[in-house]
């Protein structure tokens, strides 16, 4: 796994990060960090505590703090995350200056950023991170996470900036690698078609449309289009169980009962399961997932694809 740093933000108190404690994040979910499983198993990890502006409180002029993340847990019923941390050292840079260097995806209350990316930003700010803090990342350099089983070509679907056509092509290859029978359409043929149809088993198929973006939320036009694609495919395909889905880097919210959401990260994790399980792997659990409208995330994958 690429070395990660946990970025945390708060406007709770002006000196919040300067004493050891467990930080709760109410009304959020741990799943907002795709690398949660690997990071939680790799503690202690390097972290950064930022002071931010939130509602009527603005502590963004306070200096950010280097942290040691001792543990990461979540409430099983609410999925609310908790981060146990120890203070390493206070920086000499205002939090808002660091915030200005971070991209939008890293300005959330909590997120994970590549260690090398962050240290590059810190160099630009004239920061010299403490040796103790650096050592937390270097000590984990040899840690093997599930993404290491997947391969660069597929990981780039989530991480690299790809053209829309390249994104569609790699998604089709990923689905094929998982064992689907893929009929790719999209940019391959002229006309109004879904990006592809992925069939599995004897009587199941997914009509899918690719969205090369983070935090995708379908518009009314997107929904009308995929429902039309679904209706068209039902007229010409033999499977009795045909569903429709969007495939995107990530989504806002959960899918609907008639439109499924398939995040790239979940498909990549399923590919890891296929590598890990070998000949025991099958796509059969998808029938239960689709028929019962179960959310397709790591938690579901771990429950449904186990080494029996």
CATH topology of the largest domain: Restriction Endonuclease
Give the radius of gyration.
21 Å
Detail the poorly predicted runs. Answer: none
The level of helicity is 25-40%
Give helix and strand order, one letter per element, not per position.
Answer: EEHEEEEEHEHHHHEEEHEEHHH
Name of the CATH first level of the largest domain: Alpha Beta
Number of domains: 2
Describe the sheet with the most strands: 6 strands, mixed
In DSSP terms (H or I, runs of 4 or more residues), the helix count works out at: 10
Distance between the termini: 26 Å
Please explain how this structure is put together.
This protein is an alpha+beta fold and 308 residues long. The protein has 10 helices and 13 strands. A 6-stranded mixed β-sheet has the order 2-7-6-3-1-8. It has a 5-stranded mixed β-sheet with strand order 9-10-11-12-13, with helices on both faces. A two-stranded antiparallel ribbon has the order 4-5. A hairpin with a 3-residue loop joins β10 and β11. It is elongated.
Helices and strands, with pairings:
Elements: E1 4-10, E2 21-24, H1 36-41, E3 45-51, E4 53-54, E5 57-58, E6 63-74, E7 81-94, H2 95-101, E8 110-114, H3 115-124, H4 131-138, H5 152-159, H6 164-178, E9 181-184, E10 196-200, E11 204-211, H7 220-236, E12 241-248, E13 260-263, H8 264-277, H9 285-291, H10 298-304
Parallel strand pairs: 1-3, 11-12, 12-13
Antiparallel strand pairs: 1-8, 2-7, 3-6, 4-5, 6-7, 9-10, 10-11
